[in-house]
Amino acid sequence: MIMVVILGGGGHGISLAYHLAKKGVPSTVVEMFRINYGSSGRNAGRFRYHFYTRENVEFAKEAIPYLLKMCRELPLNPVCVKTGYLWVLEDDRSLDTIKRMDGIWKSLGVSGKFLDCAEVDIKSEAQCYLAPQDGAFHHDYLTFGMYEEVKDKVTLIPGEAKELVISGGKVKGVKVDGKLISADAVVVTLGAWSGKFMKENGISLPVEPEKKEIFITEDLKYRVKPLVITPKVYFSHTLKGEIIGGVEDVRERGFLDFNVSLERMKLFLKDVRRLVKGAEGIRVLRGWAGYYEMTPDHSHVMGYSESWPEGLFVDAGYSGHGMMFSPYSGKIMADLILDNVKSRFIDIFSPERFEKNRLVDERMVI
Amino acid sequence: MEVRSKRHGRIRAPFDCEKGLPYTEVNLNGKLVENCEPVTGLKGFSLPFSGMYLHRVKFIRHVPWLLEKIAERMNVPERYSALEEYAEERINVDTLIIGSGLSGLTALSRSKGILVTNDLFTDLFDDPLHQGELVSKIKEVIKQNESRIIQGDFMGKFTEGFVVRAGKKLLLISPSKVIFAVGGRYLPPIFEGNDYPNVISRRLYLKRRSIYSKVVVLGSSDDAIKTALVAGAKILIPREVRLFSRRYLELAETKGVEIDEVNFLRVKPKDSKLSVEWDRGNQLVDAVVFAPVKQPRIESMANAGCEYRFYPNMGIYLPEHEMDGYMRSCGHFVVGGARGIWDDEASMLSGEAPFNPEALSFLSYHLKEMPLHEYYTRNFVSVRSPYYYSPGGYACFCEDVLWSDVEQVTKMGYDNVELAKRVGGIGLGECQGKVCTYVTGSVLSSQKLITFRSPLYPM
Ligand SMILES: Cc1cc2nc3c(=O)[nH]c(=O)nc-3n(C[C@H](O)[C@H](O)[C@H](O)COP(=O)(O)OP(=O)(O)OC[C@H]3O[C@@H](n4cnc5c(N)ncnc54)[C@H](O)[C@@H]3O)c2cc1C
User: Fold this and answer.
1) What is the third-level CATH fold of B199-290?
2) Could you write out the DSSP letters of every residue in A112-181?
3) CATH says B87-185+295-377 is which class?
């Protein structure tokens, strides 16, 4: 039987292990800290169909129903709920963008609607745009739910994967803390760490970390259903009563430390207090940081490249929207690795696109 | 003030009035009010359902509106009135001392630093066993150094530096050295009924002594003996868990304090009293007072990047430190209760230790008599947790997580605190794990707790 070694125990690595196990194939997952240590344990837990590119919308149209189906089946309940995404169009730029997108989204069958923000209890005079198909889920319950289902078929190896072992143009395994783990296939699902690992093994894969901070408030009676997106921040209400969200800003790439800043905390609080009824004096309970996994076109990378050693695969680089896609991506990757079934998305999101200049220019990074 | 818990609607009151602990602050029509009132009515309708139903009852997943309806019915505030903005100010300090117990004040009198505290008059002042001499000495230190004491909250580390909230100001501080004198706390043990009002810490009991006539004491520490002496009460300890020093055991014996080992413990309200039942006895009391072991307030040190470890000999978490209090991992110091010391003399010596080698040798001699000693000799031996009396009760009071839920997730293999948080939902409520993570961790012998994130208090 094929020996598959998966590097990284986030949503994508565990999803792949899940789908391999469902096909009867056990696998090994190498994780340097713990399951969901990376972005999969640090995200906002929201799903959407509404992307800038047709390719990503089409991907979502398959991936989100798949996520919702998994939500009904897993042994832990990832609490998938349709809440909508709500853009608060307070400046011309966001108004223009959404007006343009509305037409495209309509043609793709995921139309939203313009309304007064007040209609959805948001204290703004501006127009709002509601995308009702989108929603929320619980990131840890998703990953641990998949893991729980197949854990007897997954070997978890704690440690840092360092060196790919290659012979005769083929992948033979990977070294973890000096110890060789043999493999017929090695899959890189290292999230923001993917580019670094590949580079250390002499392969260029343009995935870089960008630090993002995220905050959560004390409890307020559940009232803001959708994820609210203003020109500066995004936030949403959890079923537990907290308001979770962060600041949309671009900063230097790199593995910055996980501290949070007063500056961003204040920006986040400012919009929450301004826009949510009853939250005028709400306070932050905690903040944390994680990495978006940035590619040059902000779309993910999945599959392999002809120029790579045989048996090396990747599934990474989802910027700020990879958690929702983890169930479906794991399925596509399992079909590819075990059955050589190539989804059309393997071509679209191939790592070769950067050389062939077939970028999927995704501009809606939230 | 009657407070109902968030999910189960249980009547709750603070078990200790330390700022930031469960139910010490209540939202009344949008205004935040400090709450440290005793509660008399103990019974009320509540629904202690297991949080695991969310996963187990598949039906829930097919009625998406159900969870929204439940969310709308939770006991959480309707609104928060607008607050004044804070002014920010950067201040230059070489040494920052956090906390004003014996050790912190001793360190202050020895250094040129600034001391930040949100509880200037610690329980030291409430303990009738304290000689007047010590208390007046400490009052003197406070008086002489008033200008260097800031009343405020240490909010933790941010990109901008350490943040202290003092009145309407946020002070940004980047000191070269921090002395953590944050002390320790008594946390409620695990048993059925552990969340009832009037199940309280030794600290709160000392403040309220006059209103309780009959109590029972839970705890395996010297402070449990001290409490029993003050209260004229019996002590219940979990089977085989004795963390007493020889001196206090002898004291207990001469004063006739009874110490009973317990395999089973249950507390139930009976009128305005609590009925306490254990294997070989029962009592009707006004309060159940606990002092299982004093757990250092690790969260502020961990937040500042200082490492800590599980010390299995006492079932507590200790910052990794040397005899003089130096924490190599972060370059700061720890003194007093924050390093596990509960004895007055040792506490003062530990406040001197960073400045005075002579105090250091006294301190090391002094600690030889205590169960802390093996931390320094690295002679680690596991004991049963001082928090575990018998199954039942609540693991987390803020989010109403039952102890049986923690048992369920540990059986699934998620057997450390971080995983019990991720899968079982502890450590995510209003107090951000200042209670449940330590207790759960001690019972599970978890090597690590959770990441204690900034801010350390709601901000
Ligand atoms: C603040 C924030 C908010 C977000 N919000 C959303 C959202 O609302 N919706 C959404 O869908 N997505 C969101 N995302 C994005 C999403 O979290 C990620 O795209 C997704 O989790 C990536 O999953 P992964 O499994 O590929 O990577 P990760 O979860 O990062 O997993 C990679 C794992 O690899 C491990 N690792 C790294 N190097 C090594 C090594 N050398 N050896 C062994 N192990 C190693 C790490 O410890 C980590 O556990 C957000 C991200 C952030 C940071």
Assistant:
1) FAD/NAD(P)-binding domain (3.50.50)
2) -EEEEGGGGTB--SSEEEEETT-EE--HHHHHHHHHHHHGGGEEEEES-EEEEEEETTEEEEEEETTEEE
3) alpha beta
Q: Calculate mean pLDDT across residues B113-139.
A: 81
Share of chain A above pLDDT 90, in %: 99
Outline which parts of chain A fall under CATH 3.50.50.60.
4-63+140-207+296-356
Residue among A54, A115, A57, A56 at smallest CA distance from A86? A115
CB contact under 8 A, A259 and B157: yes
Q: Which chain B residues are within 8 Å of A72, Cβ to Cβ? A: 58, 61-62
Please tell me the residue having the least CA distance from ligand 1 atom 3: A43
Question: What ipTM was reported for this prediction?
Answer: 0.95
CATH topology of domain A4-63+140-207+296-356: FAD/NAD(P)-binding domain (3.50.50)
To the nearest whole number, what is the mean pLDDT of chain A?
Answer: 97
Identical fold between B87-185+295-377 and B199-290? yes
Per-residue DSSP letters for B374-410? HHHHT-------TTBSSS-SEEETTTTEEHHHHHHHH
- For chain A, where do the domains classified as CATH 3.30.9.10 start and end? 82-134+209-294
Q: What is the pLDDT of residue B131?
A: 65
Question: How do A170-176 and A208-217 pair as beta strands?
Answer: unpaired
pTM value is 0.96
- Closest C-alpha to ligand 1, atom 46: A38
pLDDT digits (tens, 9 = 90+) for A117-127: 999 999 999 99
B227-273 pLDDT, tens digit per residue, is 999 999 999 999 999 999 989 999 999 999 999 999 999 999 998 89
Domain A82-134+209-294 belongs in CATH node 3.40.50.800: no
The radius of gyration of chain B from alpha carbons, rounded to an integer in Å, stands at: 22
Pick the residue whose CA is nearest to atom 14 on ligand 1.
A320
- Does the C-beta of A212 come closer than 6 Å to ligand 1? yes
Cis peptide leading into residue B455 (ω within 30°): yes
| A121 touching chain B per CB within 8 A | no
Residues 6 or more apart whose CB falls under 8 angstroms from that of B139 comprise none
Q: What residue spans define the domains of chain B?
A: 3-81+393-444, 87-185+295-377, 199-290
- Is the predicted pLDDT of residue B150 greater than 90, yes or no? yes
Please give the structure tokens belonging to residue B397.
Answer: 């009071």
What tens digit of pLDDT does each residue of A37-85 get?
Answer: 999 999 999 999 999 999 999 999 999 999 999 999 999 999 999 999 9
Q: Does A273 touch chain B (CB under 8 A)?
A: yes
Which residues of A fall within a CB distance of 8 Å from B459?
265, 283-284
Name which of B158, B172, B458 is nearest A218 (Cβ-Cβ): B458
Query: Which residue in B162, B411, B454 has the most chain A C-beta atoms within 10 A of its own C-beta, making it the best mutation to test that interface?
Result: B454
